[in-house]
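Lecture notes, continued. The same structure-token format from the folding unit now serves as the input rather than the output. Read the line below as a description of shape only.
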């Protein structure tokens, strides 16, 4: 009875940690030990992230339209007015929330895989940075956990640096989802948003760009270490124009979370995927993880594989308003070499063989 009262007290106080602590104090049952309870909480935390990004925006849009057809149309009208008024906020620095970034749920999310953030060099708060994140994986678990939450202690490891993970601008047109993402410090991956962060928001900003994008997600599979980078030079040009230092970031284990059906390049199915990717902005991957209750079954739950995100050494970049193609190529080559060096230095530490190499497509 006391334990139930403690849980009720936690609900009244609104603290997720109090509720979870009370649950852990419940008397153990043969079918639900404390370790199993913790594991289920971890799975639920991961699933809420996946379902949020897959369904929250669409569900909220449908709900908003439906409310206009009911007696609650005033609520829908007020929110729509707010949406119009707040439309440009995502590309003007957003609206990050320290409280949301420190939610207890993110520690369960982190511990499911688990996810770790490895610092190799100090970053100066007097500079701005563009982090190139590799590889994309299916859901960018490492990028989200490390840079959109404080679960791995980014602010403690890199004091004075504010990370902003860049994602599809279309996500910020969807009600509720846009607010949810902004609370985590996520921003649209477009010119206006990144320009604002790197030129009109002071220093100490780190824009995290998943350079390979949706195209790279089509080439992610367990045991495959490849990045889509050879022809991706826009982020280098932007770094030169803003005088932002380039920082290579590689997540070992990101590709191990799901198994994907890989279609041969040039095949009919791969062509369909490429066309849908250009049309929708994201790649329609055919993948599977494990089930909620069993790792032997198929489902949406990712496999429990460690994700180790290594933040490499910054490449000092001068500010050049109109960089030449040769200059862009030079820093692009420097970036590729730095990323390859980072991969080679840490690959054996995180379970790869000495003979494994990074394939740059």
């Amino acid at each position: 009875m006391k334990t139930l009262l403690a849980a009720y007290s936690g609900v009244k106080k609104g603290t997720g940690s109090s509720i979870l602590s009370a649950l852990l104090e419940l008397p153990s049952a043969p079918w639900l030990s404390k370790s199993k309870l913790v594991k289920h909480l971890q799975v639920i935390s991961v699933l809420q992230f996946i379902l949020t990004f897959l369904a929250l925006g669409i569900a909220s849009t449908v709900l908003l339209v439906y409310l206009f057809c009911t007696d609650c149309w005033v609520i829908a009208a007020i929110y729509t007015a707010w949406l119009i008024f707040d439309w440009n906020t995502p590309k003007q620095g957003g609206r990050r929330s320290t409280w949301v970034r420190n939610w207890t749920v993110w520690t369960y999310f982190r511990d499911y895989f688990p996810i770790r953030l490895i610092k190799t060099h100090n970053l100066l708060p007097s500079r701005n940075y563009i982090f190139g994140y590799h590889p994309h994986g299916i859901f960018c678990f490492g990028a989200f956990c490390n840079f959109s939450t404080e679960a791995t202690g980014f602010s403690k490891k890199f004091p004075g640096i504010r990370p902003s993970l860049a994602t599809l601008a279309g996500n910020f047109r969807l009600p509720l989802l846009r607010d949810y993402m902004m609370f985590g410090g996520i921003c649209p991956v477009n010119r206006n948003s990144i320009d604002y962060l790197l030129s009109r928001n002071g220093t100490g900003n780190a824009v995290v760009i998943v350079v390979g994008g949706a195209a790279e997600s089509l080439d992610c599979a367990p045991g495959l270490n490849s990045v889509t980078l050879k022809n991706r030079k826009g982020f280098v040009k932007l770094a030169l124009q803003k005088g932002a230092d380039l920082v290579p970031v590689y997540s070992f284990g990101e590709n191990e979370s799901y198994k994907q059906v890989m279609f041969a390049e040039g095949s009919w199915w791969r062509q369909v995927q490429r066309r849908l990717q250009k049309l929708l902005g994201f790649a329609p991957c055919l993948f599977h993880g494990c089930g909620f209750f069993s790792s032997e079954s198929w489902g949406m739950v990712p496999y429990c594989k460690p994700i180790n995100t290594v933040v490499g050494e910054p490449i000092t970049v001068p500010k050049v308003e109109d960089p030449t193609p040769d200059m862009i190529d030079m820093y692009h080559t420097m970036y590729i070499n730095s990323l390859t060096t980072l991969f080679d230095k840490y690959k054996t530490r995180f379970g790869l063989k000495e003979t494994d190499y990074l394939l740059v497509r």
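Point for the exam: The CA atoms of residues 99 and 142 lie 20 Å apart.
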